[in-house]
Amino acid sequence: MRYHQAMDAQEVDKRFGVPGVLTFESGPGGLTRASVTTASCSGQMYLYGAHVTGFQPVGHKPVLFVSDATMYQRGKAIRGGVPVCFPWFGPHPSDKAAPSHGPARITDWELAGVDREEDALSLNLSAAFDPYQVDYRVTFGHELSMALAVRNTSESTATFESALHTYLAVGDARQVGITGLSGVEYLDKVDGTKRKTQPDQPITFTGETDRVYVDTGSACVLTDPVIGRQITVDKSGSRSTVIWNPWVDKAAAMGDFGNEEWLEMACIETANAGPNAVALAPGGVHEMSATVTLRDL
Ligand code: BG6
Predict the structure, then answer these.
(1) What is the pLDDT of residues 63-105, one digit of tens each?
(2) Which atom in ligand 1 lies closest to the alpha carbon of residue 100?
(3) What is the pLDDT of residue 1?
(4) What's the 209 CA to ligand 1 centre distance in angstroms?
């Protein structure tokens, strides 16, 4: 693996900052953080992990959950926002010492460029994880769009998993419902990875939930009666959707997550995982994208 040198916040700000719209500063743990303010939203992202930690359309509450207990520390993933999981999802298949969800979320990415559109702003980041070159474009606007393009730079086929592990902020996890996956098969990670089929009803949280829905390209809609909104996670180039809430015991067992915070989040992860791992031909490019939009109830 090749890890990038961290880009200095001041230097990045001089080169890419746009007064009043985009600023870079040294955030907690000395990690370079971008703050975005457009006519349509505010947003926040760290170059460390290419990690989006904030998205808030004007007139709305924050869309993403970030734990109050997260450690902003190299070597650890930020808990919340949108971790980029790559090139594997979950534990490494054979190496127990390898980081959970791959090195992408604990790597300093390079900022390659910034694009301003009418009322949106895009940040383009890149990183190399041998044999892959990865370009990641995040657009903050009325909606949050994230597109991960993976190129196989080697001479042989390479297989990877990936996820945009979106932590959505919710009013009360016990009261949300998620639609879009009726009839879809999933691997139930809290029940011995058994293959099950989602009944024709919204997914609700009544205990620890950790499911990899497979062979699905559908959008999901989370209905939150407490905040009074619907969040849609639409996607392309993704055949898996992971639904995760740690619930009480797992929350208590995580050192970087508050005991009660499971009530405030629900993950809808745009992924290619397990049976949907991507086999990429030499020189081939695969793009996966997720778009998060809001609607008031
Ligand atoms: C989810 C996985 O995507 O991420 C869960 O399906 C896992 O199994 C969760 O517990 C959090 O993972 P981590 O490595 O960030 O603690």
Answers:
(1) 999 999 999 999 999 999 999 999 999 999 999 999 999 999 9
(2) 14
(3) 37
(4) 11
Q: Give me the percent of the chain exceeding a pLDDT of 70.
A: 98
Q: What is the CA radius of gyration of the chain?
A: 18
Give the residue-averaged pLDDT of 156-173.
Answer: 98
CATH 2.40.30.100 applies to domain 9-296: no
Give the start-to-end residue ranges of the domains of the chain.
9-296
Q: How far apart are CA 248 and CA 178, in angstroms?
A: 20
**Minimum-distance ligand 1 atom for the alpha carbon of 254:** 16
Please tell me the distance between residue 137's alpha carbon and the centre of ligand 1 in angstroms.
Answer: 23
Q: Report how far residue 270's alpha carbon sits from residue 144's, in angstroms, rounded to the nearest whole number.
A: 13
Task: Describe the strand order of the beta sheet including 144-152 as a list of residue ranges.
Answer: 110-116, 121-129, 132-140, 144-152, 285-296, 229-236, 220-224, 177-179
Cα(98) to centroid of ligand 1, in Å? 14
Cis (ω within 30 of 0) for the bond into 246? no
